[in-house]
Design brief:
Bound molecules: zinc ion
Oligomer: single chain
Strand content: 25-35%
Radius of gyration: 21 Å
Low-confidence stretches: none
Distance between the termini: 11 Å
Helix content: 10-25%
Number of helices: 3
């Protein structure tokens, strides 16, 4: 098994768009508010359908959105500016448009490129909704020119979009792997151990601690294998594999409904192909 990280070609990572996308922070905002429309309603993306393919509305502002707050300029995709607009949860959709969930666990049918654009847009909207006031003194903040960051005009505090690092790890022991499930997941669906990085903690330290806390075992050979941006609302998932080093399974019932060893050739139900959890299992849970 190669210890070298694989190229993580997953939705929500901006890299999936390649050179077709340029983020807004480079270059000036277009003078005219026309282009691709990334319309969000809760965690849904509002799309039109060309045959079976969901696409973004393109051109002038779709009727019905004109009265909303000014759209955010996200960047340029396929040489066309992208504008992010939000609809209230109870708003009627403009004619000819449909709501599709962006959330993999709810069974998204959106293509990967739209998931990545939708994910960045969810994060942009989340950032706008949480950064309007200085977290230190409460004053209304101002956008830093050419950046997503905000500055406080009173105390000069500056902050930039917050990403929360979380590790996610597959524990292997010869031809078996350790998988866990939380209450409320689809029956027989298992995935990996995951948790947020604490103050003062290395990523490897977080992996070892989370495994010890949630399932009671020790691990060694903690190896980075790739990462995924996860915009629900603002995580970056940092993926690892590790080798079982000893200890009995002791399940933290506050966190988990079950955890068990599965033979690599008899795995249970797994998360959808959109998540790094599945990516790691597909690539590293091999006999
Ligand atoms: Zn302040």
């Amino acid at each position: 098994m190669s210890p070298t990280p694989l190229s993580v070609h997953l939705p929500f990572n901006r890299e999936i768009l390649g050179a077709t996308f340029t983020p807004a922070k480079r270059g000036g905002k277009p003078a005219v508010t026309e282009g691709h429309w990334i319309i969000l309603q809760d965690q849904n993306l509002i799309v039109q359908r060309e045959g079976d393919t969901p696409t973004l509305p393109c051109g002038a502002c779709p009727p019905g959105l004109d009265a909303m707050t000014p759209p955010l300029w996200l960047g340029t995709w396929q040489d066309t500016p992208c504008w992010v607009a939000t609809l209230p949860a109870d708003a009627k959709l403009p004619a000819g448009l449909h709501a599709e969930t962006v959330v993999p666990m709810r069974g998204t049918s959106l293509p990967d490129e739209l998931l990545s654009l939708g994910g960045m847009s969810l994060q942009a909207v989340w950032w706008e909704s949480t950064s309007g006031h200085c977290p230190r003194c409460g004053e209304r903040t101002e956008r830093i020119e050419g950046e997503w960051g905000k500055r406080c005009p009173r105390c000069r505090y500056e902050h930039y979009p917050h990403l929360h690092p979380a590790t996610i790890v597959l524990v292997r022991d010869r031809d078996r792997v350790l998988l866990t499930r939380k209450a409320g997941w689809a029956p027989n669906r298992y995935a990996l151990v995951a948790g947020f990085v604490d103050n003062g903690e290395s990523l490897e330290g977080c992996v070892a601690r989370e495994i010890k806390e949630e399932v009671g075992v020790d691990v060694k050979d903690i190896t980075y294998v790739g990462s995924q941006n996860w915009p629900f609302p603002s995580q970056v998932m940092i993926g690892f594999v590790a080798t079982y080093a000893g200890g009995d399974l002791v399940i933290d019932r506050e966190e988990l409904e079950d955890a068990r060893w599965f033979p690599c050739n008899a795995l249970p139900g797994l998360p959808s192909r959109h998540s790094i959890s599945r990516f790691i299992i597909d690539n590293y849970a091999q006999p």
